């Protein structure tokens, strides 16, 4: 910066250039606001966009710090670091575009590995550059393990509207780490999520709430409580950030999301009869996967009740025209995982199933076999809907492939296969029998169901029986 004074013909630049000057432009943020500190530079002492530190105290801290152990999720967190001789450090969030009245902030925090505990003070400021305007709302004692903290700003209606976090020095030296900040309104009215809407925008959910209508939203942040997509409800959104609480998709509920999200997806099961064969059959598929794999492990935590009490579970081996048992007995090897896009024949004594993991999203590939020696059963493969929403088979639909015969088959509870027409609904968790005309790799696309013609009621000429149940 330098002086530039005078008329168009006369300019005084004798003062020369000053040293470099840095500044941040004003910017306000809307509610809900989330910050995970990811993607910042690892050089210097960075802060997220529009965050600031007051003048006259540390110009380096707090800063975004990359170290996975101290981050609650991913790799970055906000670090406070100093000693008893230093001035308390303050991190100031961007200005809110509305008052703090009725607002909450929640985040996870911990101290560094070599410390037992220290304090953080959460409050607000009327001038983000003047540390003397800081007013404390709550002092927190932070321990060595990540804990979640929620602060209510009550009826404060100050303007400007800056939330600030300050180190409370109780040790000779300290390091504190904060992650997954969410600023949100205190409650979400049930009326916002129980009727069809256009677009609800970004939503923060701080309590138990159930969706039973067609809801469209931007990014949803679950702060606390359980978000349930009930029977008949469809939630279409850009992303779901589960900071606290959980997401449950009930039987008949649907999630259409641009990203994979952690969820529990339910499947209702009616108890089979005492008969060894004939009734209580389903074709099922997993709508979730485990971590970075394309399958979910069969176990008590990931597939709740799947193998509880009396049950039978099979996949269909087209090459041998046989049903392969999940149980490792009678010479059978059994299997321990449910692959994305594969269907399974199943029944149990009446336990509701829960699939726990990250929802499948994007394309899913399934290998289909065709064994000419199997005669009229050649090419039949049992696949499954790998998504937490309905899909369809046919041109332009999720299952669209040149090497598939038209139509498909689903099983009735009595164990009979019923033919369906391309375009019919294939629900979440549902398996279906398709016929390949050649050995091929089938790509199932994440395209949600669009209503089409109704199915016929013809039956294929084989049924399911089992003498081991």
Structure, explained:
- This protein is an all-beta fold and 469 residues long.
- The protein has strands at 28-29, 33-35, 63-66, 76-83, 90-92, 95-96, 103-111, 118-125, 135-142, 147-152, 162-168, 173-185, 203-205, 209-211, 214-216, 219-222, 226-229, 234-237, 239-242, 246-249, 254-257, 262-267, 282-284, 288-289, 295-297, 303-304, 311-317, 322-325, 337-339, 344-348, 353-359, 364-368, 380-384, 408-411, 416-420, 431-435, 440-444, 459-463.
- Strands 14, 17, 20, 22, 24, 26 and 31 form a seven-stranded mixed β-sheet that branches.
- β34 and β35 form a beta hairpin.
- The protein starts with 27 loop residues before the first strand and ends in a 6-residue tail after the last strand.
Count of β-strands: 38
Q: Which structural class best describes the helix and strand composition?
A: mainly beta
Our Rg estimate from Cα atoms comes to 29 Å
Indicate the proportion of strand residues.
35-45%
What is the distance, rounded to the nearest whole angstrom, between the alpha carbons of the first and last residues?
Answer: 84 Å
């Amino acid at each position: 910066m330098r002086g530039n004074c005078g008329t168009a013909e006369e300019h005084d630049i004798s003062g020369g250039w000053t040293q470099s000057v840095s500044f941040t432009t004003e910017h306000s943020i809307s509610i809900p606001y989330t910050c995970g500190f990811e993607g910042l530079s690892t050089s210097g002492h960075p802060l997220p966009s529009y965050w600031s530190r007051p003048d006259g105290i540390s110009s380096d801290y707090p800063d975004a710090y990359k170290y996975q152990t101290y981050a609650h999720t991913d790799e970055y967190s906000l670090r406070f670091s100093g000693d008893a001789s230093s001035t308390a450090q303050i991190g100031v969030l961007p200005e809110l575009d509305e008052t703090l009245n009725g607002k909450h902030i929640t985040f996870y925090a911990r101290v560094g590995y070599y410390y037992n505990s220290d304090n953080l003070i959460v409050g607000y400021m009327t001038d983000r550059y003047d540390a003397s305007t800081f007013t404390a709302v709550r002092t927190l004692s932070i321990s060595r393990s990540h804990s979640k903290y929620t602060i209510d700003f009550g009826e404060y209606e100050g303007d400007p509207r800056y939330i600030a976090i300050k180190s409370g020095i109780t040790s000779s030296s300290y390091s504190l780490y904060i992650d997954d900040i969410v600023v949100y309104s205190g409650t979400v009215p049930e009326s916002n999520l129980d009727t069809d809407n256009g677009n609800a925008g970004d939503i923060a959910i701080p309590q138990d709430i159930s969706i039973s209508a067609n809801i469209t939203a931007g990014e949803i942040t679950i702060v606390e409580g359980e978000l349930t997509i009930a029977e008949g409800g469809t939630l279409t959104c850009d992303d779901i950030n589960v900071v606290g609480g959980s997401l449950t998709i009930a039987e008949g509920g649907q999630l259409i999301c641009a990203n994979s999200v952690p969820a529990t997806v339910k499947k209702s099961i009616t108890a089979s009869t005492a008969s060894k064969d004939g009734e209580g059959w389903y074709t099922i598929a997993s709508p979730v996967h485990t971590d970075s794999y394309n399958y979910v492990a069969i176990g008590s935590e990931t597939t709740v009740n799947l193998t509880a009490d009396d049950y039978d579970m099979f996949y269909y081996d087209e090459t041998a025209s046989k049903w392969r048992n999940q149980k490792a007995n009678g010479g059978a090897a059994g299997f321990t995982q449910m692959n994305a896009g594969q269907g399974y024949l199943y029944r149990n004594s009446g336990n509701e199933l829960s699939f726990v993991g990250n929802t499948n999203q994007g394309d899913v590939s399934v290998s289909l076999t065709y064994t000419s020696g199997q005669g009229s059963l050649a090419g039949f493969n049992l696949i499954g809907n790998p998504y937490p929403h309905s899909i369809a088979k046919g041109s332009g639909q999720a299952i669209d492939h040149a090497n598939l015969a038209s139509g498909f088959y689903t099983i009735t509870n009595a164990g009979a296969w019923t033919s369906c027409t391309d375009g019919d609904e294939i629900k979440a968790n549902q398996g279906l029998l398709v016929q390949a005309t050649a050995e091929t790799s089938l790509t199932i696309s994440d395209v949600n169901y669009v209503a089409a013609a109704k199915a016929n009621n013809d039956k294929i000429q084989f049924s399911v029986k089992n003498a081991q149940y």
